[in-house]
């Protein structure tokens, strides 16, 4: 890494520490030519293997783009997309592998997307799981309904009714 001040090629590490829970290392360097200091970050690259066999580095931005497409016309804020992508990154990084197939990334998207917006989830799942019939959608919707029934938010609503609270 060239010195950002003098473009010198030689530097020595004066300090290094782990950041982002050990996913990256931050190094403080001193340029051998001009003596000025700068910081570099060394990050573990998580590779995603596409169906075609091509490998590319995991990209949070790519997750955002894919989900944004599924969210078109839905009341989903940009912030929520960023948060979802962050969550997906944490999930796939926590797998502790250097390389993972792209469908694992899709899988990590489905859970949080379902929480975020059910319509966007159905759109995304239909592509990801390559639904081929109306029955596939019906089954997915049945699963959504079942999950909704089991959701703790339903219990909360019942509690507030019991207390006689008005919204
Ligand atoms: Zn320098």
TrEMBL record:
Pfam families attached to this UniProt entry: ATP-cone, Zn_ribbon_NrdR
PROSITE patterns, sorted: ATP_CONE
UniProt family annotation: Belongs to the NrdR family.
Cofactor note: Binds 1 zinc ion.
Top-level taxon of the source organism: Bacteria
Keyword DNA-binding belongs to the record: yes
UniProt KW keywords: ATP-binding, DNA-binding, Metal-binding, Nucleotide-binding, Repressor, Transcription, Transcription regulation, Zinc, Zinc-finger
Known function: Negatively regulates transcription of bacterial ribonucleotide reductase nrd genes and operons by binding to NrdR-boxes.
Cofactor: Zn(2+)
Zinc finger intervals, unnamed: 3-34
Keyword presence, Transcription regulation: yes
Ranges where the record places region Disordered: 145-167
Protein name per the record: Transcriptional repressor NrdR
Residue intervals of the ATP-cone domain: 46-136
NCBIfam families registered for this protein in UniProt: transcriptional regulator NrdR
Entry-linked PANTHER family: TRANSCRIPTIONAL REPRESSOR NRDR (PTHR30455:SF2)
């Amino acid at each position: 890494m060239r010195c950002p001040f003098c473009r010198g090629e030689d530097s020595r590490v004066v300090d290094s520490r782990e950041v982002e829970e050990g996913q990256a290392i931050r190094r403080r360097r001193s340029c051998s030519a001009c003596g000025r200091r700068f910081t570099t970050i060394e990050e573990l690259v998580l590779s995603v293997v596409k169906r075609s066999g091509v490998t590319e580095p995991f990209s949070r931005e790519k997750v955002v783009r894919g989900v944004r497409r599924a969210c078109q016309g839905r009341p989903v804020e940009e912030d929520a997309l960023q948060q979802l992508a962050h969550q997906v990154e944490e999930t796939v990084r926590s797998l502790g592998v250097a390389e993972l197939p792209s469908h694992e990334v899709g899988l990590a998207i489905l859970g949080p997307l379902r929480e975020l917006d059910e319509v966007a989830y159905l759109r995304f799942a239909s592509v990801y799981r390559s639904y081929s019939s109306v029955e596939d959608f019906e089954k997915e919707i049945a699963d959504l309904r079942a999950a909704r029934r089991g959701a703790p938010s339903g219990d909360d609503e019942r509690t507030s009714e019991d207390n006689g609270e008005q919204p």
